[in-house]
UniProtKB/TrEMBL annotation:
Pfam families to which the protein is assigned, alphabetical: CoaE (PF01121)
Enzyme class, broadest EC rank: transferase
Name of protein: Dephospho-CoA kinase
NCBIfam families documented for this protein: dephospho-CoA kinase (TIGR00152)
Pathway(s) where this gene product acts: Cofactor biosynthesis; coenzyme A biosynthesis; CoA from (R)-pantothenate: step 5/5
Cell compartment(s), UniProt: Cytoplasm
Record function comment: Catalyzes the phosphorylation of the 3'-hydroxyl group of dephosphocoenzyme A to form coenzyme A.
Keywords: ATP-binding, Coenzyme A biosynthesis, Cytoplasm, Kinase, Nucleotide-binding, Transferase
Family recorded in the similarity comment: Belongs to the CoaE family.
Organism: Collimonas arenae
C-alpha cells in the first residue's frame, strides 16, 4: 500500500482548502466526506439501505437522502445515528479503498473530519495531519459559510474531538488562523517531507 496521511481538523478549520493545495502539488486526495455525499446522493448505493432502515420519508424528491431531515434525526437520537453509521461506514471503507487503489499520485491524503475519533482510521494511515485554528475563528467561518448561529456551530463542535485532543494525536500540524497566504508554504514543506517518506516506504 502507498504511504498515506490522514488529514483532519474541526468543522471549518480549513481541511478542504488545505487538501486542494496538496492535490495541486500532486498528492492523491481522497475526501471521505465527498464519498459519503456521493453514496447518499440520488442513485447512490446507500439510498436503498437507507430507505429500508429509515423509510422513504428520509429521501427527497430528487431521490437523494434528505440531509436536513436526517441531520435533525441523528442529532437528537444517537441510536439512529449509529444505524446510519452502520450503513455508511462500511460503504465508505469500500469506496475509499477502491479510490486508494486507483490513485496515481506518489502518496495518499485521506481527508477524514472525525479521524481522531475513529480507531479504524488511525490504524489505516501512517501519519496524522491536523489543520488547526482558533475555536473563535472556526465559529466565525462556519457561521458565515452556513448561515448558522454561534450556538449551532458550538453544538457541532461539542460532538467533535477538542482542539487539544487533535493536536495531541497529530504528527504534523498546519496552522490556519489567519492569512490564507500562510498556508501554501506550510503545505509545500509537508509535501516535500511526505514525498521522501513515500520513497522510503
Ligand atoms: P468543513 O469541515 O465544514 O467541511 P473544512 O475544514 O473543510 O470545513 P474549509 O471548507 O476549507 O474547511 O474552510 C471553511 C471556510 O472557511 C470556507 O468557506 C473557506 O473558504 C474559509 N477559509 C478557510 N481558510 C481560511 C483562511 N485562512 N482565511 C479566511 N477564510 C478561510
Amino acid at each position: 500500500a502507498k504511504f498515506s496521511v490522514g488529514l483532519t481538523g474541526g468543522i471549518g478549520s480549513g481541511k478542504t482548502t488545505v487538501a486542494d493545495m496538496f492535490a495541486k502539488l500532486g498528492a492523491s486526495v481522497i475526501d471521505t466526506d465527498a464519498i459519503a455525499h456521493q453514496l447518499s446522493a440520488a442513485g447512490g448505493i446507500a439510498i436503498t439501505p437507507i430507505i429500508a432502515e429509515f423509510g422513504a420519508d428520509f429521501i427527497d424528491a430528487s431521490g437523494a437522502m434528505d440531509r436536513a431531515r436526517m441531520r435533525a434525526l441523528v442529532f437528537s437520537d444517537s441510536d439512529a445515528r449509529h444505524r446510519l453509521e452502520s450503513i455508511l461506514h462500511p460503504l465508505i471503507r469500500t469506496e475509499t479503498a477502491r479510490a486508494a487503489e486507483q490513485a496515481e499520485g506518489p502518496y495518499l491524503i485521506f481527508v477524514v473530519p472525525l479521524l481522531i475519533e475513529s480507531g479504524n482510521w488511525k490504524r489505516r494511515v501512517e501519519r496524522i495531519l491536523a489543520v488547526d485554528c482558533d475555536e473563535q475563528v472556526q465559529v466565525q467561518r462556519v457561521m458565515q459559510r452556513n448561515a448558522m448561529s454561534e450556538s449551532q456551530v458550538r453544538a457541532i463542535m461539542a460532538t467533535q474531538a477538542s482542539r487539544q485532543q487533535r493536536l495531541q494525536a497529530a504528527d504534523d500540524v498546519i496552522v490556519n488562523d489567519g492569512d490564507p497566504a500562510a498556508l501554501l508554504p506550510q503545505v509545500a514543506q509537508l509535501h516535500t517531507r511526505y514525498l521522501s517518506f513515500a520513497r522510503l516506504l
